[in-house]
Amino acid sequence: MIEFLKVIVLGIVEGFTEWLPISSTGHMILVDEIIHLNVTETFMSMFRVVIQLGAILAVVVLYFRKLNPFDSGKSPNQKRATLHLWIKIAIACVPAAIVGFALDDWMDAHLYNGYVVSAMLIVYGILFIMLENRNQYTEFPIQRVGQITYQTALYIGLFQVLAMVPGTSRSGATILGAMILGCSRASAAEFSFFLGIPVMFGASLLKLVKFGFHFSGLEIFYLLAGMIIAFVVSVYSIKFLMGYIKKNDFKAFGYYRIVLGVIVLAYFTVMALLG
Known about the structure:
The chain is built from twelve helices and no strands. By secondary structure, it is an all-alpha fold. The chain has one domain. Helix 2 runs antiparallel to helix 7, helix 4 packs across helix 10 and helix 8 crosses helix 9. The chain starts with a helix and ends with a helix.
């Protein structure tokens, strides 16, 4: 029962933090250190990634009509625009797919630790505050996702590569990059959501292939429970973010990242001294 409660907590943390630019990885590492699910480290490494499938399904459900090029209610032009959107998503995913396939194991071995995560939380928190201060009176030229060009999509994809470093936040890197490239907060957030679909499906599949499909009944239960909880919480998380940025900027998330980064750094420093 206690282990199931831990799975619930991890699913909630994943669902709430995946879509906000505050690093789901940073939160998952910290929470896992505190409550520590009683499984092997190999399974835990895969669990952190695979439960993201639940979070991804939330995007698919919430934006199904917008992402469906075969919707009978759409005009031919709208269907064509949706197909173009998917091509842009595919283009933006290429850099992360190449780097992720080549460096996944190396990054897990060398960068997946509290010190790297805390540094990235703080650095990107500062960048968000600086960018929003600069954009205080800026009128963004790209107001809708459909206005993003193929070239801009590729550049956003290059920013997404930065999220391979734990603690950066995939949504944080892509939103930050999109805004630097002239996207409004809403269009940057939406395009970040859409990019997560192939990227996180691919990352989950890669982890499953590396881990193998030999799960115990309890491990399957943990995965399914984590994904379902992450899905439900993600629906509310996405709605919250899109409502929040209609009237606010991202500075609050920047300050939050800095505070969390300091907490993570302090925690792991104390643990190292005590150990």
